[in-house]
Amino acid sequence: MTQSTPAHLGLPVVRSGIELVPTLEEGTPALSGKDFTSDQEVRWCPGCGDYAVLKAVQGFLPDLGLRRENIVFVSGIGCSSRFPYYLETYGMHSIHGRAPSIATGIATSREDLSVWVVTGDGDALSIGGNHLIHALRRNVNMTILLFNNRIYGLTKGQYSPTSEEGKVTKSTPMGSLDHPFNPVSLALGAEATFVARTIDSDRKHLTAVLSAAAEHRGTSFVEIYQNCPIFNDGAFDAVKSPTTRDEAIIPLVHGEPIRFGADGSRGLIRDTATGGVKIVEVGDAPDQVSADDLLVHDAHSPDATTAFAISRLTDAGRLHQAPIGIFRQVSRPTYDDLARDQITQAAAAVNGSPSERLATLIGGGDTWTVA
Amino acid sequence: MGELRRAPHEVTRHAVLAEGRARRLSKQVKRLDRVIIRFAGDSGDGMQLTGDRFTQESAAFGNDLSTLPNFPAEIRAPQGTLPGVSSFQVHFADHDILTPGDAPDVLVAMNPAALRANLGDLPKGAAVVVDTHDFTARNLTKAGYDGNPLEDGSLAEYAVHALDLTGMTVEAVKEFGLTRKDAARAKNMFALGLLSWLYGRPTESTIAFLQKRFAKVPDIRDANITAYRAGWNFGETTETFVVSYEIKPAPMPLGTYRNITGNLALSYGLIAGSVQSGLKLFLGSYPITPASDILHELSKHKAFGVTTFQAEDEIAGIGAAIGAAFSGSLGVTTTSGPGIALKSESIGLAVMTELPLLVVDVQRGGPSTGLPTKTEQADLLQAMFGRNGEAPVPIVAPRSPGDCFDTALEAVRIAVTYRTPVMLLSDGYLANGSEPWRIPELAELPEIDPAFASQPNHQTTHGEGDSDMTAEFWPYLRDEHTLARPWAIPGTPGLEHRIGGLEKGDGHGNISYDPANHDFMVRTRAAKVERIAESLPPLEVDDPGAAVGAGAKVLVLGWGSTYGPIGAGVRRVRNAGYHVAQVHLRHLNPFPRDLGDVLKRYDKVLIPEMNLGQLAMLVRARYLVDAVGYNHVRGLPLKAAELAEAIGNLVAEAEGIEVDLNALIHATTGGDDR
After folding, report:
1. pTM check: above 0.90
2. What range does the domain containing B551 cover?
3. Which of A57, B212, B269, B425 could disulfide-link B405, Cβ–Cβ 3.0 to 4.6 Å?
């Protein structure tokens, strides 16, 4: 079964992630990327992948049609976390690892804001790992952009929780001993409702993923492969180089067979032996698999098992191969909507002004009067 | 109890007491001015509930009162052991009292461990009501007794009432067909009924309480009510108790009162702060003893627009509160000392971003996990200095359970007016202890104006002419009086801005690494907190002789929950004929502007604290005053008698006179403790 969209499951009508955010008044001129560019000088290293993502975000935000003042970017600490300074929106550059918790307070207290978190592999997966997984399980309405460059840049080149085993860095002269996280697997394990991966240099794909992430109501988790030219240059060359990328990228498109390689020569099928998925040669030869039998990608499946299996095709060591696209997108009530619903329900059940009710509250219980 | 024999008073009653009092008339009734009772039992015996009900009955009767719950950190420590003993002390009087009392007049001990754990606190002649049911060889051994204290004469100095409370309870409720275990569980209500008879407490509120609490389990409900009535009737009919007592209502200022714990008053104060400011309350919190009850209470009040977010950890709790504050809510986080340690970096962020935020620390014994259920006030220096960099945070502290309401409102006022995180230091004693609280009229509460920014506040010049001016929003352009920065919340067009933990340029608020700017901003943040002192009223100096030229030479300075014991100690010293002055601080940072002058008026300054001298250190550093500490960290409130002795010694030294310490110990007339 690959057709189990929310509508088929009788789920509530899927609401957009930004449906309660005020849009520009009709008749006002559309905003441009320039309107989202602050007057602050961008201070990333030359060639940093962050520039490409910033440009893509500045170029894409006007498409949402939202009022600029109702957009908030929150970041933690790290190179990518300078991001909010360069956007002409509301923003907070907070402390290391804590952006998801701050964004949770923003999103829960205000339904009329489009909330974005910008974070890195160290910020989100190391010092802030706890906040990340809890934001994902709660499904707070926000979009988390995780810039994964597989290195600590701002502290000048130590290994990160996504660095490959054996990596030689300033703090690991004999090679790293840490087994890395696969951010997509982690997000799926934390029951995230929207999980995607994209690449800094592929502006078209990046923009399409951002657009879907903003539309999604709940926590959208987007891992962005981002090159650090100073401390980890070339980490993602396999998926970027024209000569290798066709073999390296396993593109995920909902409703389409998962097929990749030059001339679509390879594809995915279920691996009945392990319960996972495996890569096969596509064709009619005896050791090949027919194109009709390839696994069709179902991002809307309520069961995350297949999405998780696909995420495991990502190299844990030096990157040669990775699935790219939206792994999972399912509808589940968001924490912030539910929290506001409880307040609405409770408020509907009482009468009187807040002052009157305050007087009743503090004057309640067993009382006595001294006259 | 036993030795107090006076002629019975004519009994005149509140109408509400008609039922109970009419029956009590069959025995002698003697009048007392105050009584301290301690209920003690196993942590599963319901002693906290028993004490709380007795307190509510006393409050409804109109006595002044003060309570001290004392329980283990373990939910159910091994039954019958000393670590498993839970107790609740209530002091009630026909006059104004300040503390739960140093030593109980009456101990109710539900098992051997409860007797053994508490006997040492009893003065000679105190009454002991013992449930004999659990005085078996096995339980005596568990409690560490070699023999049975009820039989070996070791209790000869006390007036002991050894009664099979459990057996009588089981017998009284047998009609309900409960298991023996369930039947025996009502023994606390039997004990409550007996003590309620003994002290002429009104019974209606407890019966109404039991009906409501056990509404869904009728047999349990009826058994508890029956046990409660049986306890009352036992007192009335048995020969064991030949007299009962009355403690008249205390004269109090006019008004409507309720009994309230510190955590409840603090929760109400936060809601009041939300209503008075028009800001929605957002609590980000992680469960921790003894602060969790604030989270529980606020979660019941969503109708006020209160959001309670139980976070994944302490850091996320304050993080979410900061996010909510940035978005225009009244951000609050509640915790105890260990939680503050985890929140420190985030508090620094709130200092740097200058957002209104309330950080409530219900202090407990430390360091580390320390004594989770016991009280202490050793987080003052953590609140003051526990962050990297120069990170000044205003600090306020309530003095009594009811004062938690006013102090919470004051914290909201400071946070919102000055755009700053504010620390509120309560403690375990205030949190769980209770006292009668005069319910304020809404008109008495302060109005708090969030004054959100709505317009650009700065003109930037690009050239010569007027047309070359652009209106901008500068997030760090300050109010010249308060030095507060504007609070512009998302959704406000034209005021888009970015804040964060990096140093801000003065005014425009962009990142700045300029040395002179950093120096200026560090000083400005400190000056802003110092400005708060301009909004504070003069200190109340309690020095009765000063007006007639007979002022004291010794000043006792305190903060937080030591107010009661200090006040009680000061009364004793005065009742014995000596002079002493008292000042109690609500504001610990900044200090009130007149504190330095007040301190200099006295030869000696005594600072009693439940720590090793933290306020003393601040006062000595700030005012170069040779303050003397009086310090205990026993996890319990300071004792008034010991404090009186310490004050007396200092009075003797300062005035060059002999002070009769014995007189201080016995100077209880109209006073507080024994």
Report:
1. yes
2. 546-666
3. B269
